[in-house]
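Inputs:
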Amino acid sequence: MPFLLQASSLSVKTDRLFLASVAVCAALLMVVVFFIVYFCVRYRRSRNPEPVDVEANTALEIAWTVFPLALFLAVFYFGWTNFRYLRDVPQDAMVINVTGRQWAWSFEYPNGKQTPELYVALGRPVKLVTHTLDVIHGFFVPAMRVKVDVIPGRANYVWFTPWLLGDFDIQCTVICGVGHSRMLSKVHVIPEADFKRWYFSDEPVPKLQPVSARVPAAERGLAGLLRAKECLACHSLDGSPSVGPTFKGLYGSRQTVMGPGGRSQVTVDEDFLRRKLSDPQAVQVEGYPPVMPPARLSERELDSIVRGLKGL
Amino acid sequence: MSYLDNEGAPAWKAWLTTTDHKRIALMYLSLIAPLFLAAMSLGVTMRIKHLHGGDFLISAQTYNELFTLHGVVMIFMFVIPGLATVFGNFFLPILIGARDVAFPRVNLLSVYLFAAGCALALFSIVTRGGAADTGWTFYVPFSVRTGTDVSLAVFSVFVLGLSSILTGLNFIVTTHRLRAPGMSFHRMPLFVWASYATAWIQVLVTPVIGITMILVILERFFNVGLFDPAKGGDPLMYQHLFWTYSHPAVYIMIIPAMGAVTEVIPTFCHKNVYGYKAIAYSSLGIAFFGSLVWGHHMFTSGMAELADMIFSLLTMIVAVPSAIKIFNWTATLYKGSIELTPALLYALSFVFLFAIGGITGIIQGALAVNVFLHDTYWVVGHFHYVMFGGTGFGFFAALLYWFPKMFGRMYNPKPAYWAWALMFVGFNVFYFTFLVLGTMGMPRRYYAHLPQYDTAQLLASAGAFTMVSGILILAGDLVWALFKGARAPDNPWGGMTLEWKTASPPPKENFKERPVITSGPYEFNPGRRA
Ligand code: HEM
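Outputs:
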């Protein structure tokens, strides 16, 4: 897995907090390191043969108690609110039972299908409820940032909405015997159409296309860019329904959106598109799940997408 | 006449029946040092294994036994007892001007219990089942079902716990009853404060692990079902019991190291420590809050969300006293006259590495992030920063500081500097890479790893080998000094605390005449204040 690959909505939230707290803590550390090194040089014996005792300064002592406390409490607070989000399963999540045993995983879908690897539809939330046949295991999908202990007598759960097509590792995280490090499996994120086709067929497992081929045929220009940015995983160009609204006829249409100021009506114009693309979670179209990931777009890419959508 | 003199008795008898706290300290050292090196070589073996992702060198079963034994030895036989039994035993009585600990015979008993505990754990390697393969945490139900000899391993932990309780009891009573005239609590050196706070944790929480280990044995032999949901038990109860001890235990490991570092820094700055009371009372603060945060090892276990929240909150709070100490140590350097001797270098490295251990703890203490990082190499990196970067480096700093006093010989500082460079660089390459591997999703206790981790695993191993070569150089330097080092003067560093006012090595019963205390412990510059 590439460093901090983000394959679910949870991953963005978790990483934001993780990186922010790394930054804050690293800054704090750098201050301490600076002073240690500076003092060791400035007050070395050869330069400063006469030491001086310094009275403790109450204001200083209080400051360096309160300041880290405030920082740590902030880290706690965001950890807690994000955790609430992690525990709060969307109503429409598909419930899949995960069973661990020494040393394999199996997945059971609501219609009774069973697979040794997990197949999920892009953009559709899943809730995984865990069971074990023997000892404790740990169910961990790094790319989705979810983990839960699989404990005898306890139905623990995790949920996520996958938003990248691909195959992601599942690893066991609780020592469970000699096969622990080989208790691996995969999450395969496939287009919803493929998932449905398999789900209602007799095939035991879906036939997997290579990740690059899981999106419909080659397109050029705007479509190429949208595809490269994974937009077409959730949006269609031809009016067909998907996870998110179709791009066809989008420009100039009237939409009901949920924004910071509550519900409102907007016309989709350049301004709106730019706003939506720079922070997808800030305004959300009603009637769709709030799962659009932040797109990493350069100014130029943003321009050409906005221009392209105008012309559709 | 020095305490090392056998006075005509045969050496084995003079040592094995001694009740002198200083000899007992050396008996501990002679057990702990080889155990540390042995467990280190187990760690190196694991790092060699990970040069290759698949089957290589050793079997998966052996690997699981290796990290379990490595963990058990490092935790229960090095970092938990290390500073308390070696430097605590040796210096706590001297630092308060006492002739010995309060119960010298109990002290001898506890060293025998300690030796017995170590022997039991090592013996489990050759019993039929083989060494335990559960990790040092012995989580049920795996620890109840596995065929390896978990019973012997947990019984060893039980016996070691007994020894730890007796030492703690001894230190509490010694601190209360045997201080020299004039030595009020606020005139005690900070190492004594730290040992005192630690002793309370030892006495209060160690019984919990003792009982828990006995319960595991009961389960293994009689299948009582305390932790078995089919019989109305709950595996999480084990985890609660285990961490009720084992989290406070990390403070048993770190507080004495903090205390030792607090002795080293003022001596080599030749000035009073900054914020004496803040440092003294923050030890007690850590001891208290540290007993209330065990649940942060269980955020992914599915316990109540309210409990998750409270444990996360308390975890943030317990970090504050540690931060206070770090700021106070740093401020102590201000306007000092700093001699960067090996002891001070290791002590400052302790501050840096422990700080990283602390902040990685804050980061993983945030609930949502913990869900991601729990049980990955991130956590392994974090606790090596705390336990090895912290306690380990603190142990080395203490050893380099007090070596001349304990053995009456000087070591050569040059190899100690070289060893430091290798250890410090190697350490960070090794364990920082572990942190990164964790964020890439590499789970802990894995024999095999997936190909995407190959490069980082290789880098971590390279760091480990560098670090270990540093450790070996340091060990060589000290062993050499033990036999060939120049005679040490009574006060080679210009220290102010009581151990520097007696001979090197100290005489039996420590002082020719009982010291009388008239000032605080670090009055290097009476009258020169800013
Ligand atoms: C103060 C020194 C040290 C302490 C306290 C310590 C402690 C530990 C503990 C508690 C574990 C976890 C065992 C388990 O998961 O059950 C561990 C794992 C490990 N340690 Fe150490 N250790 C120390 C030094 C070293 C050294 C010197 C090395 C190697 C050169 C090392 C390499 C490792 C490795 C490779 C693992 C295994 C990680 C895994 O497979 O999950 N450690 N250590």
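Remarks. The CA atoms of residues 298 and 304 of chain A lie 10 Å apart. Chain A has six helices and 13 strands.
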